[in-house]
């Protein structure tokens, strides 16, 4: 059975599947609804996404606003990333804190990211990143926080990252707090 671990941010779960290795290769269960149900999380996943990124890329930090807010269940199927989530939930005791973890194809770990978090990752080895979303993509609902926000002090473990133009223009956490009246 997979190991379901609470993290430093209430609601964020890290999942370590049981991997069966033998002379052919490996087998593991990559998704089970009951992993989350045991933690009283009930999601209907409606969209799966896949991206490929070169080593040195940073994508993030992204969220969608209500009514298109998304929970995500993320993992890598090739390569290695540093996955990062930032708590943007209004009135959360951990508002403005982040959790990061290395995701790779040895541990095959997954991260459950609830609504109300910004999410991003940096690419430590060329990576295929896949994730389930609990709501559909909606361009108008997209939001973000600057990946290198000075108050977050995230160590992304990459220098001079490859980044989209869009991701250079998000708000700082301070600006976000003001414009969102304290959070998501
Ligand atoms: C996310 C997304 C993008 N797109 C389109 C929009 C755009 O033209 C192209 C690339 O989009 P982006 O640059 O936003 O892709 P990307 O930077 O990979 O965006 C993703 O980043 C990670 C960190 C997340 O957490 C995701 O939720 C998502 O925001 O794909 C969709 O059609 N559907 C989607 O669900």
Throw out a few tags for this protein.
single chain, 184 residues, mainly beta, Jelly Rolls, nine-stranded antiparallel β-sheet, two-stranded antiparallel ribbon, 11 strands, 41% strand, globular, binds dtdp-4-keto-L-rhamnose
Describe the structure.
There is one protein chain. This protein is 7% helix and 41% strand. The protein has 184 residues and is mostly beta strands. It has a single domain (45-179), classed as Jelly Rolls, CATH 2.60.120. The strands form two sheets. Strands 1, 2, 5, 6, 7, 8, 9, 10 and 11 form a nine-stranded antiparallel beta sheet that branches. A two-stranded antiparallel ribbon has the order 3-4. The chain is globular and about 55 Å long. Bound molecules: dtdp-4-keto-L-rhamnose. Dtdp-4-keto-L-rhamnose is lined by residues 49, 51, 59-60, 62, 119-121, 137, 164, 166. Residues 49, 51, 59-60, 62, 119-121, 137, 164, 166 line the site of dtdp-4-keto-L-rhamnose (TDO).
Give the tally of β-strands: 11
CATH topology: Jelly Rolls
- Count of spatially separate domains: 1
Helical region count? 2
Q: Per the principal axes of the C-alpha atoms, what is the gross shape?
A: globular
Organism: Algoriphagus halophilus
Catalytic activity: dTDP-4-dehydro-6-deoxy-alpha-D-glucose = dTDP-4-dehydro-beta-L-rhamnose
GO molecular function: dTDP-4-dehydrorhamnose 3,5-epimerase activity
EC number: 5.1.3.13
């Amino acid at each position: 059975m997979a190991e379901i671990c609470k993290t430093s941010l209430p609601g964020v779960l890290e999942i370590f599947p049981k991997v069966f290795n033998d002379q052919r290769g490996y087998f593991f269960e990559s998704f089970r609804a009951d992993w989350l149900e045991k933690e009283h999380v009930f999601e209907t996943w409606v969209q799966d996404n896949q991206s490929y990124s070169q080593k040195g890329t940073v994508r993030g930090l992204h969220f969608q606003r209500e009514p298109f807010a998304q929970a995500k269940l993320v993992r890598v199927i090739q390569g290695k990333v540093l996955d990062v989530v930032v708590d943007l939930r209004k009135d959360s005791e951990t508002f403005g804190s982040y959790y990061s973890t290395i995701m790779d194809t040895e541990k095959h770990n997954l991260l459950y990211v609830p609504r109300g978090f910004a999410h991003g990752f940096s690419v430590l080895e060329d990576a295929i990143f896949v994730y389930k979303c609990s709501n559909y993509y909606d361009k108008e609902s997209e939001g973000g926080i600057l990946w290198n926000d000075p108050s977050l002090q995230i160590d992304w473990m990459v220098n001079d990252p490859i980044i989209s133009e869009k991701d250079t223009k998000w708000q700082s956490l301070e600006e976000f707090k003001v414009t969102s009246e304290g959070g998501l």
